[in-house]
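Cross-posting from the modeling subforum.

Setting up a comparison between two proteins and wanted a second pair of eyes on the formatting. Protein 1 (sequence, then C-alpha cells):
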Amino acid sequence: MDPSFLPATALAGLVRTGKLGALELLDHFISRTERLDPRINAVVVRDFDRARARARELDSRPDKSAPLFGVPTTVKESFDVAGLPTTRGHADLKSRRIGVTTITVRRLEAAGAVVFGKTNVPVDLADWQSYNPVYGTTSNPWNAAHTPGGSSGGSAAALAAGLTGLEIGSDIGGSIRVPAHFCGVYGHKPTFGLVPNYGDPALSAAAGTDIAVAGPMARSASDLAAALDVLAGPDPDESGLTLNLPAPRFNGLRELRVAVWAEEPGQTTDSGTVAAIHALADGLERQRVTVSRAARPPFDPKEAFHLYLRLLDTAWSIRVPDAVVEARRKRLASLPETANSVDDIMLRTVGMEHRTWLALNEQRFKWRRAWTAFFRQWDVLLCPAFGTAALPHRQDGEPWQRRITIEGHEIAYDDLLFWPGLTCGYHLPATVAPLGFTAAGLPLGVQITGPIYGDRTTIAVAELLERAWLGFKAPDGW
C-alpha cells in the first residue's frame, strides 16, 4: 500500500497496528520530499535527523494509542520549533534558533505526530502567494506556473503533493482557507481563541493578534476533526477551564439547513466559481437538503467587509516597523478621498485613536451577534473561499501596488480579500473543502462557515460533502 496520500488518521492506524513502523513511514515521506519537493519548494526547513530519532523512540513504545501516533507532519514556517529558525521571510532571522516550541506544535507532538520540517510562507505572511528572499518561491503541485496561495501556501502544497501527512497553518485573512482552495485540500479556520498559539516568548507576542487563529490542514475532513481535538483548548498556563465544543447540529444531509451565497454585487468572483457553488447547491437540493440562496445576515455586506478591513489593519499594526508606518502616513496624506480599494481603506487606519477602535469593536460585536441570530435559522453558510482559482505567480512590487484582471474586470490585487474576510473579522469558524475543478484543471474549494464555536458543525458538513460530493484528489504526476 502506498501511504503517500492517505489521511493522517489512516497513517496513524498503519503504525498503531504494526503494518508500518513510525520510522518506516517517516522515511517514506522524507524520501518523497527529497525526491519531489525540488519541483515545488514547499518543505523549506528540514529536521530529518531529530524526526528519525523521535520515530525510533515511538517505535519502542508499547502504548501506541495516541490519535496521531507516528504521523509524519510538517508545520507552517511561522510556527516556532525549538532549534529551528522562524523567519517569516526575513533573511536576518535565518541564523536565529528558536528556544521554545509553539504550543500548537507541542500539542501535535503530544498526540504522537512526528514533525520533520516547516513549509514556506510569504514575507510577514502577507500575500496570496508564498515566496520570500530566504527560501524562494513555492509552486502549486497542480500547475507549477501557479501559486499554492498564501500565507500557508507551503502547507497546502506539501499536502497536495503527498509530502506530508498533516499540516497546521494560521489565518487572519484567508491564510488557511485560500491555500486549501488553491490546492484542493481541506483547511479549518477555528473560532477565534479556540486554539492557543503562543511560541518562543523572545519572539512571539504574548497578547496574540486579534482575528488571527491557528488551525489544521489535511487531505480529509476527518483529519481536521482529529487534529482540532488535539489543538483546541484553553491555555493551560492561564486557565483551569476545559473545552466542550458543541456536537454537530445534524445527523445527516437531510437534516441540514444551508444558506448559499455564491456571488455579491460589486465583488469580483469568476463565473466558474459561482457556477460550482450553485452546482453544489443543486446537488444538495436533490438530496432534499433545505437550501436558501437568498438568506443573508441583516447588515450591509460591504459595510461589514470594510469594518473587518479596519480591524485587520489595526490588528497587525503592532508588528509593522516604525519606518513602514511613517511611509504609510505619507501615502495617506496624498490619498484621494474617492480611493476605496481594500488597501485604501486599511491605509486610513494609520494612527487610529484607541477610542475610534473601541467604536469599531463595538460595531463588530453587534454584527457578530447578527451572525449568531442568522445561524439560529441556518446551520452553515456556503460561499466561495476566494474569487478565483489559483493565481499565476506574480512578484512585481508590493501587493498593494498590484492590479489583477478577472474575466475582463480589473481590480486591485488585495480586493480579492472579500470572501475570506467577510466572516473572518467576526471570529466565525470556517472550513474549506474541495468543490471541483476549473476547465484548466485547477482546484476549487467551498467555504463552509458556521456559528461561533460551531467548529464541529462546519467540519461535519465537510465530511458529508467528502462522501456525497467530492473528496481530495491527488494531482497527476505526484
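Protein 2 (same layout):
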Amino acid sequence: MTIIVVVMMFVMTLVVGTILALTPRLTPSTECFAVTVPQGARDQEPLAGYLRTYTRVSVAVGIACALVWPLAYALGILGPIDASGSDALSWLIVATTLVPIATAFALMLHFRKLVQAHKAAQGWHATGTNAVAFVGPEEFPRPLPLWVNLAYLPLVAAMAAFAIAHYSDFPARIPMRFNLGGTVVYSTNKSLATVLFPVYLTAFLGIVFTISHLGILRSKKPIDPNAPASSALAYGRFARTQSIALFVGGILLSVTMGVTFFANTLGVLSTEATLAVIMFAAIAFAAAMLVVSWRLGQVGARVTAAPHTGSMPADNDEYWPLGVVYFNANDPSIVVPKRFGVGWTLNLARPGAWAIVAALALLIAGFALGMSVLVG
C-alpha cells in the first residue's frame, strides 16, 4: 500500500465528509432538512440546534472515516497489494465512502421528522398559493449554452488521431485494469479498439455531461414571490456557475484520463503515478464544487440574504417523500432543484423523467457492456 494512495483517500474522504456536513446549511432559508419553514425559523431553537447536531455528528464521522486510512497504513493492516488485489482495501474503500453518506442521510431523516413535528405543533402553513412570473433583463446571468459541449468533438478527434498516428509505438500488451497499488491486474493484446479506449471514455463522459447540462437549461426556476428580482438574479448566478463548473470539470477530467492512459501505456508515466494524477483530478474537482457550493448555496441561497419576514410563500412538502425524491403530477417540470443537497433532480411523476432515467441506464449499461467485451 503506497503512501500516496493513503493520502489521496484521506483527503477525498475529508472532502466528501465536509460536503455532507455543510449540505443543510446550503439550502434556502425557508427549508430545514427538506421541510418548508417560515423565514427566520431556521435560525431559532430548536431548529438551529438540530442543524448544529447534524453538523457535529457528520464532521465527526467524516474525520473518523478519513483517519482510518493513515491508521490502517501505520498498522500495516492492508499490506502490499498484489495482482489479485486486496479484499481489505476494497472493504475499506466501501466503508469510508458509504458510512459518511449513510450517516448523513439517516441524520437528515431523523431531524426531518423532528422539524415536521415542530412545524405541526407551531401550526406553520402557507397562507395561500403564491405564483409569480419574472422576466429578468438580458444582462441577468444565464447558464452556458448547450453548444459549448461541442468542444468534446475535437477532443475526441484529437485523441483518436493521436492513437492512430502512434499505434506502432504502443506495446504488444495494453494494460486495461490496475489496482490501487499500481499493479496491472489485466492486460490484453494490442488492437485499434483497445488503443482507442480513452476515445470511448471521453465520448461517454461528453454525452453524460451534455445531458446534465441540458437538465440545467430545462430546470424549473425557483422564484421567491417576496423578492422576485433578487431571487431570479441569485438563481441565475447559481445556474451559470454550475454550468461552467460542469463543462470545465468535464473537459479537464476527460483530458486528464485520456492523457494519463496514453502516457501510461507508452511507458512515459508509471501506473502508480497515473493513478495519483487521476485521483488528484477527482479530488480537485470535488473540492472546487465544495467551494462553489459554499459561496453560492443551493439555487443561489447564499448570494443574497433573504429578509426574515416570518412568511411561508409556498409549502409543497407533500411532494417530497424522504426529502430527496420529488413526485408531483401537477407540476409539468421534469427537472427541478434539489430540496436537500446542491444541484437538480427529476420529477418522477412525469413520464419524461422516467424516459431520461431509462436513457441514462441504457447508456451506462451499453458502455459497461462494451468495455467488458473490450477488456475481457
